[in-house]
Structures are given as C-alpha cells and as structure tokens.
Amino acid sequence: MNIVKDGHPFIFAFAIITFAVGYWGSLIWAVVPAVLMLFFIYFFRNPNRPTQSDDSIIYSPADGTVMAIVTFIASSFKYSSS
Fold first, then answer.
1. Contact 3/43 with Cβ under 8 angstroms?
2. Is the pLDDT of residue 38 over 90?
C-alpha cells in the first residue's frame, strides 16, 4: 500500500505532534493526534488494485460502484452560460 504524496505533510505533522504531546504532556492526550494521524494514513492510502486487460470490464473510480452506462444527451438539460 502506498501513501499519496499530498498526505505526507499531514501525516508527518501529526506524528510530530503525537510525539511532542506524549513526551512533554500526557500519554492519554497523545491518543488524539495519534488517531488523527492514523485517519490521515487511511485517507491518503493508495492501495494496489489488480486490474485485467479486458475491454468488457468497466472499473469504477474512487472505490465506487458503476450504477448504469447510458448515452448522455446534453441538449436535454437546461443550463445557463453566464
């Protein structure tokens, strides 16, 4: 599992905060930044997903579910160009 580079500052910052609070403060209070650090590790993870080279398979982005594959007609929607 890889971590996205955008998450490194958050993870390192909360690791330092966790260490500082645990060292100079109370270990009980160090749990809060440690939990936030673990959340950022989970949030910015980039797991390796096996994929197949098959044109009949449609992969869903962002761990979602493909609900339907339909033809989109833009003229059926009203929009304003302001």
1. no
2. yes
Residue of 57, 47, 17 whose CA lies nearest to 34: 17
Nearest to 17, CA basis, from 44, 40, 1: 40
Query: What sign does the CA torsion over 12, 14, 20, 22 have?
Result: negative
Determine phi and psi for 47, rounding to 5 degrees. Answer: -70, 150
pLDDT value of residue 11:
96
6-31: burial string, b at 16+ Cβ within 10 Å, e else: ebeebbeebeebbeebbeeeeeeebe
